[in-house]
Amino acid sequence: MFRTILRAPIYFFDTNPVGRVLNRFSKDLGLMDDMLPLAFFDAFQLTVFGLAILLISVLSQPYIAVVVVPIIGVFVWLRQYFVKSSREIKRIEALSRSPLYSHISATLQGLATIRASEEQNQFHEMYNKYQDCNTSASYYYLAANRWLGYRLDIICAILMTFVAFAPFIAYETGLVRKEQITFQETNLRILQGCPRHWCCWHHLIPCIERTSNAKTLQRNEGYKGLTIKRIGDKPEQPRTCGARLFGQLVLSFYQMVSH
């Protein structure tokens, strides 16, 4: 990806701010290398454990299947509904992060000019504005996550209520009822983690898309590669005069950029 960006044409740097390019090498690569494998492993492990415990519960007490099967369907529906909304929120968070990085980079490059012009307060206010925009998107994601957790708690409470009162209908002993409640309580904790971890894994997928798009950029025409000089090479003689002639020069805007 680094080699592709070095060979990218000029319009790529004109249409993409510095923060967006830095975001590919910092946040996206970090999530793809560190968080994505762990999220997939945790989601897959919890799913296998949850299905195994549900199978044991249904085989030992078949009447539990009356509630377990609809609850699994509701879990899947909640996951699909939550992923569609939260994925867009994560995209907004990623988009709001790029102006923040661009502002920090531009501020560091022109720090001497900013101090000479005494514009520190203005740039500080701009930084707070970009930071608030990015933080608000993060709070939206936390609110959506709590929305999912609240509904999962309600569904698990319904299942626990059914498990607690079903033995009275089946005329089972109190010892078996306590074992069932304890067993189902452990199972519910695992079932709650399954949709959360799968949603977390889906949220990390866009970082792969952005990294893949950065690796498939169009190469600049006439690029011949980088020339590396050795330390012992003699420097070229400085030129005392020169001239550049332009003939039949044509300027055209990039087709995907609106002007």
From TrEMBL:
GO terms for cellular component: membrane. The keyword Transferase does not apply. Keywords: ATP-binding, Membrane, Nucleotide-binding, Transmembrane, Transmembrane helix, Transport. It is a multi-pass membrane protein. It holds the Pfam family ABC_membrane. SUPFAM superfamilies: ABC transporter transmembrane region. It is found in: Membrane. Signal peptide: none annotated. One of its GO terms (molecular function) is ABC-type transporter activity. Belongs to the ABC transporter superfamily. ABCC family. Conjugate transporter (TC 3.A.1.208) subfamily. It comes from the Eukaryota. This is Multidrug resistance-associated 4-like. Its main location: membrane. Coiled coil: none annotated.
